[in-house]
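Hi F.,

I've been meaning to write this up properly since the lab meeting, where we talked about keeping a consistent format for the predictions we share between groups. The idea is simple: the sequence comes first, exactly as it goes in, then the structure tokens exactly as they come out, then a line or two of notes. No screenshots and no reformatting. I'm using this chain as the first example so we have something concrete to point to.
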Amino acid sequence: MNFMKRAFLYLGRKKGRTLTLAFLLFFMSCFVLVGISFQKSTEKEMDRLRQSLASGFTLKVNTQNELYRGSVDYGNGISGYDYTGPMITEEMIEKICSVDGVKDYNVNVQHTAWADLKLRPGMYADELEHVEHLGEIMTDPPTKEELMCWGKALDLYPCRNGSLHKNFRSGALTIVEGRNIKPSDRFKAVISDWLAKNNHLSVGDTITFESKEGSHEYFPKHPMETIGVPVEVEIVGVFHSAVSFPESTSTLESSYIENVVYVDMNTYMEREENLEQFGYEGLRGLITVEFMVEDPRQLDSIMQQVKHGDELDLENMELEVDETAYQATARPYRQIHFFAILLLIVGLCGIGSILYLVLKLWVQGRKHEIGILYSIGIKRGAVLAQLLTECLLVSAAALLLTFILSGPIVTTCAATAERLTAPKEDAEAYRMTLLAFAPVITKTSSDEAVLERVVSGDAVLFMALFVCGISGISVIASFVGVNGLKRKRACLAQML
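Output, unedited:
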């Protein structure tokens, strides 16, 4: 009788041991399979998030440095202090973009424009409604013309590529109609769904931006007088904001995200040049510029090249990485990734050790059987082949069952992991604050994790090799131990 037939007969006769071993192998295979699938899925998602949310660095001017704070005369005997130091220039931006690995940039600047639109009402609208009573509560109340100017003043956010703006990258703002700003755009705009609805606007309509004296002078004589030539822009997209300030009469109109308009860089430059032609000082440079990199894993080395480059003078400027949105969004994936690593450790080490002990006890418990096989002339190689065949047959059955149930197993585990790491229902996904009366959005809570339900061929192959490998090694090691013990006993019997 050959070793294959003896292996089948033994497994059929020892059904209890066979089922126990098969269950242990199946259990271990599930741990390994789920661990590998989760690890691959979470790493893929975190890499995607890193590409979109932590894909660059920011060059920022330190405007709070007292060495560069100069006195500014606002007129009428009023003066103050403002930043007078180095600024980010177009030449600096071009040099940084020439560094290998830097693929694009986005400016962070605000520009005020007046438009004959209905804005989300705030403090100026309330004061205009009660303008005749302002003198009772203010020593120097604004005029009706000033309030008419300020109440319809918009903040324009110029973009090279709207999809790269951090508010859109973080998901706080989403395009619900049309498209976002593109680098090739000229005189295009993206407005909020609030402005679109309350002004009966849609994609394809136009808005006229004007510069009013009241928006650019501290003590205007004619606040509603138009400076220069108005600029007409076409609406190419409408966005919706996931977060907003509650309506309040103490909030400026410009502080509402609904009253923000994103425009292309050509529109911004046209308006800047228009103001300069009429004697108004244009922007000397930029305060903040965000640079995007092709591979976030090279971010540190790219920043070092920029920081220590001989051609760049970054006096009073700082390089920083804002990973707030990435860290918040990737939180559930990091938790699941840690759980996946834990499963792999348990599957590869813990259950592997248990399997080795079980197989060792199994082989050592068959010393009498092995001795009988030796006594009837069966070679050691044939005995070992029988033991390996038994183990591999059970392993194959367990692996086949795992492969058949892999879809439901991974799907169930993924759904459980997503549910356990889901953000709390009352948790705020975004937080809005004010910086110089402008809305600043920060992502604070994670989104729901979404894991792949597909089991890759690599995961199945690794699982099969590991299970069969640890089983075979355990059997061989146990068999060698049994033979070593038999030889020691034989030597001892001869000596006696």
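Notes:
Residues 66 and 119 are 37 Å apart (CA to CA).
The two ends are 36 Å apart (CA to CA).

If this format works for you, I'll send the rest the same way.

G.
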